[in-house]
Amino acid sequence: MSKTQQIKIDEYEFEVLFHEAPKNKGYLFFLHGYPDDLRSWEAQIEYLKDDFGIIAPNLPGVGKSAKPPLRIFYNAQRLCPALAKLAEKLVPDQSTPIQLIGHDWGSILLWALVSDEKLAARFLSFTAIAGPHVALVRELMLSRLTSGVYVDLENLVKQFFKSWYIYLFQLPNIPELAWNFLAEPLWEMMLTMAEAPANDIRRTYSREEIINRATGPLNLYRELLQGKEIPLPDKIRLPVQIIVPERDLAITPEVYDDHYRYVTGLKIHRIDANHWVQIEKPSEVSRLIYSFAYDQLKSVTG
Q1: CA-to-CA dists, residue 133 to 44, 148, 204, angstroms
Q2: Rounded CA gap, 132 and 107, in Å?
Q3: In this structure, are strands 240-247 and 125-129 parallel, antiparallel, or unpaired?
Q4: pTM to 2 decimal places
Q5: Looking at the 3D structure of the chain, how many domains does it have?
Q6: Exposure pattern of 147-166 as b/e (b: 16+ CB <10 Å)?
Q7: How many CB atoms lie within 10 A of CB 138?
Q8: Is 80 exceeded by the pLDDT of residue 59?
Q9: For residue 168, how many other CB atoms are within 10 A of its CB?
Q10: SS3 letters for the chain?
Q11: In whole angstroms, how far apart are CA 131 and each of 117, 147, 259?
């Protein structure tokens, strides 16, 4: 993978992988999840870089991206405008299309971005992988809690138990201490539970890399529940496709059920894969990203 560069945006300093667009087809903006870095997109970048320009930052606190001094800087309402500014700084020509792709926390943040009409106006499409819109999930969970329907309650309980770690991460200092003292066994346990394939790039991480990826962005989870909440959108008019891994250890496929009500022209693809579907089935995910991005380009260029 090519060398990265450091870019300062407001209170943030992002480490970013950037490839110039080779064929006038615009750029793909990749945002990774937890506990990952931009290398989780290695297969997709290799597959797509000959046809599209690439923008792939590390989230704050990950890799060489600076760790903000205050927890509030991890709040989506503050971080999303900075991500939009990062894209605009790298691609200042407003006529050059930029299409968004997120995984896990990358998807959660980009959902918040595309829900803001002013921020969304700069982008052509969004591909969400293994990451729902938090506000839509919150709305869906509340409706299931009060529905009295057995299947709704069963799905609610399933998701609650899959989300146990989110509540653990709310504790101050304890998650950081656990990762610092038990980095390798906790990392191996996570990869095993996630059914990560043998060629998963994260199996090569050093102890220092594990601690950085696992502890750097923990404040994302704390701001999710303790900070300013991500609001419910009116309508999302940007073209969106969702790639749902059916064996996701963290998210049940049912949490996406309500997204059709809020997203115009939504496409959903279900794949028999684990949470890191882009690593387990890289070619399939890369083809879906390419096909969707190419279709959006055709829709604006004819």
Answers
A1: 23, 24, 31
A2: 7
A3: parallel
A4: 0.95
A5: 1
A6: eeeeebeebbeebeeeeeee
A7: 14
A8: yes
A9: 12
A10: CCCEEEEEECCEEEEEEEECCCCCCCEEEEECCCCCCHHHHHHHHHHHCCCCEEEEECCCCCCCCCCCCCHHHHCHHHHHHHHHHHHHHHCCCCCCCEEEEEECHHHHHHHHHHCCHHHHCCCCEEEEECCCCHHHHHHHHHHHHHHCCHHHHHHHHHHHHHCHHHHHCCCCCHHHHHHHHCHHHHHHHHHHHCCCCCCCHHHHCCHHHHHHHHHCCHHHHHHHHHCCCCCCCCCECCCEEEEEEEECCCCCHHHHCCHHHCECCCEEEEEEEECCHHHHCHHHHHHHHHHHHHHHHHHHHC
A11: 20, 24, 12
C-alpha to C-alpha distance for 48 and 136, rounded to whole angstroms = 31
pLDDT in tens, 5-42: 999 999 999 999 999 987 778 999 999 999 999 999 99
Q: How many Cα atoms sit within 13 Å of 269 on the Cβ side?
A: 18
Residue 23: CATH number of its domain:
3.40.50.1820
pLDDT single digits (tens) 238-257: 999 999 999 998 999 989 98
Taking each helix axis from N to C end, the angle separating 150-162 and 134-147, rounded to the nearest 10 degrees, works out to: 140
Q: Report which of 35, 181, 30, 3 is spatially closest to residue 101, judged by C-alpha positions.
A: 30
Q: Which domain holds residue 149?
A: 4-301
Q: How many residues does the chain have?
A: 302
Q: What is the mean pLDDT of residues 174-184?
A: 95
Environment class of 281 (CB within 10 Å of its CB; exposed 0-12, middle 13-18, buried 19+)? buried
